[in-house]
Specification:
α7 packs antiparallel against α8 and α9 runs antiparallel to α10. The radius of gyration is 27 Å and the shape is elongated. It has 2 domains: 176 residues, Rossmann fold (3-Layer(aba) Sandwich); 164 residues, no CATH class. The strands form 2 sheets. Strands 1-2-5-6-7 form a 5-stranded mixed β-sheet, with helices on both faces. The protein has a two-stranded antiparallel sheet with strand order 3-4. α4 links the parallel β5 and β6. By secondary structure, the protein is of the alpha/beta class.
């Protein structure tokens, strides 16, 4: 919870106390220090990885909220604040913006920045401080019920406040639900999309097992295309396979974007190393203890370069497994390195020059 309220919001402390009462053996409530400023928000959120981010403070008619910065508050766009929070906490499920005009950006914008599979609560006009506090208390009271989801908790809170205040309610509160599935669901879909790549020998077999460099290059091209467009193409005729493709917007979700970044780094390393291996090899694969490589490098150096491809492929596999963590999906097996440390140490350390 980040309380950026000033002395004008007389019920803000009541709202904080009502949320602190939600603490239990299963629920932790962390209230940020009043000293927390905008520049430190990301680090603070990352240290906790909360499932809900609750903001208390002022909003503007321009779709901004006023956040602590030095001895004053500065208006920041709601979208930029939520992007920081989402990036810092992959576990984020919901965002509650308790302040005036926090829905001004419109449902379309806030739906995009809502946590994947999650929700954002805001208000469409000026907020009466006491009513905001009352609604907040009712919302969380029902949200903590394991039989009530966020949408139902919102509806119940609204119904109770309307019953208590009737036509006297001075502001409108609303909820935006993300149109995107949960991160775990997206991770499983992305794995399904890439399954035909991960199941190939190019992503399962050590380099020294004599599979084609071209086969690996094709696998990398197919993976790169899927991670750039969300599209999975048939290997036979390059036609789109719609059932296992996914919306490109998913790739901007912070955890998926992190996976894409790590996978692309691995792909880049593999391609650079493959170029070197192609130049030194006779043929398009590794034979035995790099027996088919030229004398531009030592046998030990060629072995290290071959291992580098194995390690870079494992980097991609590790990134996929990290994305799948907690989704209930079995992890992918890593690729054994082609050459052991002992084998490399016993190999010649200088190129073998042919005799005249």
């Amino acid at each position: 919870m980040w309380n950026c309220a000033d002395e004008q919001l007389t019920h803000a402390d009541d709202e904080v106390r009502s949320l602190e009462l939600c603490r239990s053996s299963e629920v932790d409530v962390v209230v940020a220090s009043h000293a927390l400023e905008w520049d430190g928000l990301g680090s603070f959120i990352a240290s906790l990885e909360p499932t809900i981010f609750h903001f208390i403070g002022h909003g503007t008619t321009r779709g901004e909220i006023e956040v602590n910065e030095g001895r004053r508050t500065v208006a920041r766009s709601i979208s930029s604040v939520l992007e920081v929070v989402r990036a810092a906490s992959p576990a984020l499920e919901g965002v509650y913006l308790s302040g005036c005009h926090t829905s001004v950006p419109g449902p379309e914008v806030l739906e995009l920045v809502a946590p994947s599979g999650g929700w954002v609560v805001g208000t469409s006009d000026a907020v009466e401080d006491d009513v905001a506090s009352m609604f907040t208390q009712k919302f969380y009271e029902h949200l903590l019920d394991p039989n009530v989801d966020a949408s139902a908790a919102f509806g119940l809170a609204k119904a109770y406040v309307e019953a208590d205040l009737g036509d006297a309610i001075p502001h409108s509160v609303w909820m935006a639900l993300s149109s995107m599935p949960s991160v775990d669901a997206m991770a499983r879909t992305v794995l399904s999309a890439l399954r035909n790549v991960f199941d190939r020998s190019a992503m399962q077999v050590s380099m020294r097992n004599e599979f084609s460099f071209d086969e690996l290059d094709q696998a990398l091209q197919d993976m790169s295309h899927a991670l750039g467009t969300g599209q999975v193409l048939s290997r036979r005729n390059n036609a789109l396979i719609a059932p296992v493709s996914f919306p490109i917007e998913w790739l901007y979700e912070p955890r998926l974007a992190g996976f894409v970044s790590e996978a692309r780094a691995g792909i880049s390393t593999i391609r650079r190393t493959l170029d070197v291996l192609r130049q030194g090899a006779r043929g398009d694969r590794v034979y035995g203890n790099v027996l088919n490589f030229d004398n531009s490098a030592s046998q030990a150096e060629w072995m290290q370069r071959v291992n580098k491809v194995d390690m870079a492929r494992n980097k991609i596999i590790k990134a996929m497994n990290k994305l799948l963590h907690g989704s209930g999906t079995p992890i992918l097996r890593q690729i054994p390195l082609s050459f052991s440390k002992q084998t490399i140490e016993s190999a010649p350390k200088s190129p073998v020059r042919p005799r005249r």
